[in-house]
Amino acid sequence: MINIKFNVKNLYRNLYLGKTLNLIWQISPVQATVSLLFLLSENICWIGTMYTLKLLIDRLINRPVTHNTDGITAAILLAGGVAILYGCVKSISSFVNERQSAAVNNYIDKQIHQHTIGLDYSCYEDPAYLDILKRAREAGVDRPYAVVLSLQEIGRNVAMLASMGYILISIDWILPPLLCLFVAPLLIIRIKFSKSLYLWQRKHTGIEREASYLSSLITGDMSAKEIRSFSLGQHLLTKYGKIKETLLTHQLKHSRRRTVIELVSTIVTTAAFFAVTAYIIFGIMNGKTSVGDIAVFLVIFPQSFSVMQGLAGGISGLYQNNRYLADIFALFKLKPTIESAAFTALTEKRESNDFVVENLSFKYPHATEYVLENIHLHIPAGQVIGLVGLNGAGKSTLIKLLCRLYDPLEGMIRIGNKDIRELNINEYRSKVSVVFQDFVKYNLSANENIRLGNIHAPFNPTGIKKAAEDAGAATYINDFPDQYDTVLGRTFENGHEISIGQWQRLAIARAFYSKSQLVILDEATSALDTIAEHELLANIKQKLGGRSALVISHRLSTIQQADLIYVMGDKKIIEYGTHEMLIQKKGTYAALFKS
Ligand SMILES: Nc1ncnc2c1ncn2[C@@H]1O[C@H](COP(=O)(O)OP(=O)(O)OP(=O)(O)O)[C@@H](O)[C@H]1O
């Protein structure tokens, strides 16, 4: 008993009913009202059918011993009419429900996506967040409305039970309590199992994600080449199979336990039904119960079982759906930590457009060690700055900070004299365009691939062509049958696959097309042949048209044309100067250049 009390208390505390109903009301008050009215009408009609049926039976039993059928015909017509009305209301009600359910699902789907894009980039490097996201997506967009449907089912079944209880009491007062006694264990079992299933799924989110990751490696196009070259298929399949087997074993164990307990409870319930039937039959034999009573009992009692089961299903459904709702609301509760000022901040007049990294130190949110320490770096407006260093020195991390995907722990980044944390984040990000090492290959048209660099500006074909020419992409785009309208990649029909170097040129064109003040190229020319790379960088200043650039490359021949070069070594800037100065210095840069 204590345990049940505790669970009920817990259930109440964690219930998202108020939140869900409020959400559904906000999505469409009109639809919510119409749906509620239909639900009420459906229940009233159902009670009406029962009542008119009872009237008909009463008339039949109490009819005078004449052949006058007028009263009976009228009762038949009334019962039939109400039954037809009930059928019609039920059909329309189900359509109204479907329409409202679609609206709610659509809203939740939108909210999940909307919420996801608003979150910090750091979330994508946090397994705990990835678990929440997976659970929220798997909970399904239909969960909130499923809660409403469970509530409706509970309401409908309670109304039906009340009517049936009234009829059963008229036969024998003991029948309704007996009914509750038989069905209660079934209800408790269902709630208990839906809880343990949910907890089990929650506990296994991590390994389920591992299984989906392995599955995407086995079946994905990105990994197809390497998996075949290294003959990794069987190895990955075995790994995947083991995880799936563990998941399946647990799942089956759970289902087996549930089936056994449900079987036992069904046997007990059915036996009890026949025991009660026997009780009524003995009642007839003792003259305590009428034949009419047993007729009504045989119709109503089995029906009341299914209604009770429906009620148990509704309550356990409510409980289960509520638990999944917790995951959706947990996602909605996550808030970005990167703060953004009002939109006007960057429009203020500033002394200069230089980007300055000042005394910056940083470590990743879940890491213990600093990745960057006391970084100073100056990108004067209109200049090309090179950044070099060994693998893991922290170059890409610095880029993430310059893009404001993270904020520094110490020090700051400023444009002119303004700390970028005081600026509106979207406006700041529009001032920086970047080609990441792992840039995205959008399987869209060439036009769109470039236009994404400045999506908020009106479509500008001339600007797109100019950016493509500057990045060296125009030559191959012009050879496509549909030129700039050619869809790239192999994902869609008529898609045109291009080489990795050609994809990279397109990503550079995207960065050129943006109206940013600073273009960051993080190993952005790694797939270009040396002639193409030289051509691209030789005239980069002219292509940038007064904008600054920060170029990261391991090919030092690329960097040597930069106005100033910074050398990173183990979390710090260790040298800086022009190519000539650094060669003369005979330090790390000179060693790297010669090697
Ligand atoms: N998301 C992360 N969480 C924790 N540590 C990270 C994360 N990303 C990178 N690091 C660590 O930060 C350090 C710097 O990595 P970073 O990618 O910035 O180096 P890099 O200089 O760009 O290297 P490369 O030349 O190989 O691209 C590395 O030690 C790396 O392990």
TrEMBL record:
In its UniProt record, a GO molecular function of this protein is: ATP binding
Q: Which UniProt keywords apply?
A: ATP-binding, Cell membrane, Membrane, Nucleotide-binding, Transmembrane, Transmembrane helix, Transport
Domain annotation ABC transporter: ranges: 355-595
Residue ranges crossing the lipid bilayer per the database entry: 21-51, 71-89, 174-193, 260-282, 294-319
Coiled-coil residue spans: none
ABC transmembrane type-1 domain ranges (all copies)? 34-320
Q: Where in the cell is it found?
A: Cell membrane
Q: What kind of membrane protein is this, topologically?
A: Multi-pass membrane protein
Please give the name of this protein: ATP-binding cassette subfamily B protein
Identify one Gene Ontology CC term for this UniProt entry.
plasma membrane
Where does the protein principally reside? membrane
Q: Which domain of life is it from?
A: Bacteria
Organism in which the protein naturally occurs:
Chitinophaga ginsengisoli
List the InterPro entries: AAA+_ATPase, ABC1_TM_dom, ABC1_TM_sf, ABC_transporter-like_ATP-bd, P-loop_NTPase, Type_1_exporter
